[in-house]
Design goal:
This protein is of the alpha/beta class and 283 residues long. It contains nine helices and eleven strands. The chain is 40% helix and 16% strand. The structure holds NADP nicotinamide-adenine-dinucleotide phosphate (NAP).
Length: 283
């Protein structure tokens, strides 16, 4: 049986660290604050927002909601971002995406002050200075928590989006892993995946990767949050088939998704600390 790499122990250990740092900020009269900019009422946005609010409340992080209706014009969304940039009591901003199709999303993203970009949305712009996307950072946080060796190891990342695949690959390279990025056009995908020490699946394709894609001794991170034909939440990996084959695997739900919200909070706290240090002239 594979070791189950659950998100909860990672979240608990992050909370210990974050509470101490939030207390220290409190002594300097700073309450870390996270703006949530939501356009419309998409069920997955509302669900993530509920989780974020709960996590923020449990830690002592303030939430500043910006709720726009689904037909809000580009100018209104841009005005919300400008307001976030101007408010020195707001340290981080989570913009729910995708924005409606009539909005120039990349322009909105570029407007956000990189110092408040706790979810890597300015990643595509030149000289990106923000934090990495929370999901990519959650993968690294989980691998670190469970002390999965990365240096010199072959990590296969399946998926090349700006939200997960690309940023997590860059972060793994910084850890001296040898990274192969795969996508929908990759040939011999199963052979490549079987050759890895660590596999990260981020495709958004429900239970697509069965036992033939994996081998003994591997660590598998399943980033996918999908619904199967019966409406059940599931990952990209066929857990029932793969779990008996590999050494360690994240469950869905209860794996990476659980850690992502905590990473959002951790980036907000780091942004608040950086703002305080800039104000007081410390580094
Ligand atoms: P995305 O933008 O749709 O990208 C999917 C990537 O997977 C693309 O690069 C695509 O290749 C590749 N792909 C699709 N089908 C494939 C296949 N059969 N074989 C190999 N590669 C394939 O999705 P995303 O935003 O990165 O999200 C991926 C998954 O992560 C989704 O299930 C999403 O819900 C989940 N997610 C989870 C969290 C969390 O907190 N856990 C956060 C964000 C997203 P091409 O580039 O060739 O099209």
């Amino acid at each position: 049986m594979a070791e189950l790499l659950k998100g909860k122990p990672v979240v608990d250990s992050m909370a210990l660290d974050l509470r101490a740092r939030i207390e220290a900020l409190g002594r300097a009269k700073v309450v870390p604050a996270l703006a949530l900019v939501r356009v419309g009422q998409r069920p997955d946005d509302l669900s993530y927002e509920r989780t974020a609010r709960k996590r923020a409340e449990s830690l002592g992080i303030a939430i500043r909601p910006y709720e726009l209706d689904e037909f809000a014009p580009q100018a209104a969304i841009e005005a919300a971002i400008h307001e976030v940039n101007r408010d020195e009591n707001v340290h981080g901003c989570l913009l729910f995406r995708p924005l409606p199709s009539f909005v120039d999303e990349s322009h909105v993203c570029e407007l956000l002050d990189p110092k408040k970009d706790i979810d890597g949305i300015t990643l595509a712009s030149d000289g990106h200075a923000g934090y990495p996307p929370a999901t990519a950072a959650a993968c690294i946080q989980l691998l670190d928590h469970y002390q999965v060796p990365l240096q010199g190891k072959h990590v296969v990342v399946v998926g090349r989006s700006l939200v997960v695949g690309k940023p997590v690959s860059m972060m793994l390279l910084r850890r001296n892993a040898s990274v192969t990025i795969c996508h929908s056009k990759t040939e011999n995908l199963a052979d490549i995946m079987r050759s890895a020490d660590v596999v990260i699946c981020a495709t958004g394709r429900a239970r697509t990767f069965g036992a033939q894609f994996f081998g003994p001794g591997q660590t598998v991170l399943d980033v996918g949050i999908n619904f199967d034909t019966q409406g059940n939440l599931c990952g990209d990996v066929d857990f029932a088939e793969v779990e008996p084959v590999v050494a360690a695997i994240t469950p869905v739900p209860g794996g990476i998704g659980t850690v992502t919200t905590s990473v959002t909070m951790a980036h907000t706290v780091a942004a608040a600390e950086a703002a305080l240090a800039a104000r007081t002239g410390r580094r």
